[in-house]
Amino acid sequence: MNVYEAIFVRKSVRNYIMEAVNPQILEDIGNYYREIPALFSGVETELGIVDNTKKQQKLHGLFGIKAPYYLAIYSEEKDKYLMNAGYILQQLSLYLTARGLGSCYMGGAVVKGTQEQRGNKRLVIMMAFGKAKGTVTRKQIEAKRMPIKELCVYKETPRQWIRQILEAGRLAPSSMNTQPWRFVVFDNRVHVFSKKHSTDRLKKWDELNFGILFAHIMIVAEELWLDVDLIKLEDISQKSFPNNQYVLSVILKS
After folding, report:
1. Which of 29, 34, 216, 231 has the fewest C-beta atoms lying within 10 Å of its C-beta?
2. How far apart are CA 75 and CA 20, in angstroms?
3. What's the CA gap between 101 and 11, in Å, rounded?
4. Phi, psi angles (nearest 5°) of residue 89
5. What distances in angstroms separate CA 69 from CA 19, 20, 124, 151, one per listed residue?
6. What is the edge-to-edge ordering of all strands in the sheet holding 189-195?
């Protein structure tokens, strides 16, 4: 399994076997992280791995998960840094799935004693990971996601590559499974919008959610040998939408 295939079968794993993995795997995770290109250049990040195989680590905050290891991603607090962090961390999550390990985002929970600051970079979010009690995958049809017809508006019959990108986007995980994304397809582009929330509690993690979404989109583009850009179009940015907010457009280069 590669990271592209992992998009369609990954699931959040909340129960783990509290034992160590091969040290080479931990080294491979760090190496893979260093190979991931940032979604936005100029935003420095750093990855930490917390070992909890001896069960000495304590959690605080909501949605904490007892696991043998935790990934901690740190970032400079620049424009779109949360989106950038989500983009990187989701690729790591898919890599873990491809290596047969489970993972799960922890929302507001952190491991007690974890550094909140590393130099000029602040802790963004932590992810539990390790050997799962049970499977690390599920069938694509088992994913609890809204159907694409509820997420997308077509101006014309979409091309096959767009269908594949939309399906990968539909399967992206999001905080509380809110699936805040909405898509408008026209010609060789997919315009991505964020559904407006009624509460700030749900809105808080939207930027990170969209980083996860764009990770799926760019992995599919690479798998299909598509040359695409993620661009914010000014003519759409200047328009007002009652229920949605424009985020970015996925555009196939000619």
Report:
1. 34
2. 27
3. 11
4. -65, -35
5. 9, 8, 17, 35
6. 152-154, 181-186, 189-195, 244-252, 228-231
Give the DSSP H or E segment for 247.
strand 244-252
Residues 6+ apart with CB under 8 A from 246: 191, 192, 193, 194, 232, 236, 237, 239
Mind listing the pLDDT tens digit for each residue in 234-254? 888 777 777 888 999 999 886
Tens of pLDDT, residues 96-152: 999 999 999 998 777 777 888 888 999 999 999 999 999 999 898 888 898 999 999
pTM for this one? 0.93
What does the pLDDT average to over 85-96? 97
Among the listed residues 72, 71, 70, 77, the one whose alpha carbon sits nearest the alpha carbon of residue 121: 77
Are 69 and 27 in contact by the 8 Å Cβ rule? The answer is no
Lowest mean per-residue pLDDT among 137-146, 206-215, 218-227:
137-146
Chain Cα centroid distance, residue 50: 20
Structural domains in the chain? 3-130 (3.40.109.10), 144-252 (3.40.109.30)
